[in-house]
Amino acid sequence: MVMGRCHAVHGLTAGLLISNAAPLLDLPMDVKTALVLGGITAGAAIAPDLDHPGATASRSLGVISALGSAVVRTISANVYQHTRTVKDRNNADGHRGLTHTVPGAIGLGVFFGAIPAIAGMWGATPGTWATMVVIWLFLVWALRALPPKHSAGRDYATAFVLTGASYLALRETYSDGMPVLIGACVAFGAVVHSLGDALTDYGSPLAWPKTVKGERWYSCGLPTPMRFKAGKDVENKFVFPLSVVIAFVALLGVIPGALPHIGNAVASLWA
Prior knowledge:
This protein is mainly α. The chain has one domain (about 5-270). It is built from 10 helices and no strands. The protein has helices spanning about 5-20, 30-45, 55-60, 65-85, 100-120, 125-145, 150-170, 180-195, 235-255, 260-270.
């Protein structure tokens, strides 16, 4: 699978792009909202690997995330075994299973979007607190995956500070559409994760539950000669740096006037 840092950067880019849909849910399309959504989606792009006990998402919160991983692996393995065809490989542990499919990504989005939505039924304060807890969780996942590496405690504290900043950014514009937007970010981030895995030699079951070449869990991806091994030179020296550049361009895209200003500066230097 693609390394966690690549997944997180891809998720960040996706969140910055999806922030353009914020006005549809009565939320402003501004830099603050875009950064909050980018943080959520960066963490969401780590979430599908909850189906592996050694993944960043599974180890980030000690016993709590380990238990969550065990539940996800059990569900994923059972769904795999009950839907596989005779041509599908054996997959007893559930990795690269349900959470790496589009329906699985939507399920993750519904689950995490439902947490603040249900809490909001009890009042504005519980709904706000639940939203902040969800944001904190995804920020922790993103920080644990991104360089430079720090202790878990430091990442927890950093996520707490960033969550506080998210609260200040959203408190005047928070609407009932926020849980929907969170769910959309999580689902989108999870799909981006699987698209990233589809670049590697193993691929990802993005076509599920459709059967491809007799396999319901067919590993979709680039043509075989174009795929690369995760964690090797292609990813480290090309894919990750390029992903950072794309994320930076996406960030400039949500800052009013930034791209034209940068373009003019580059043009001046070129001239």
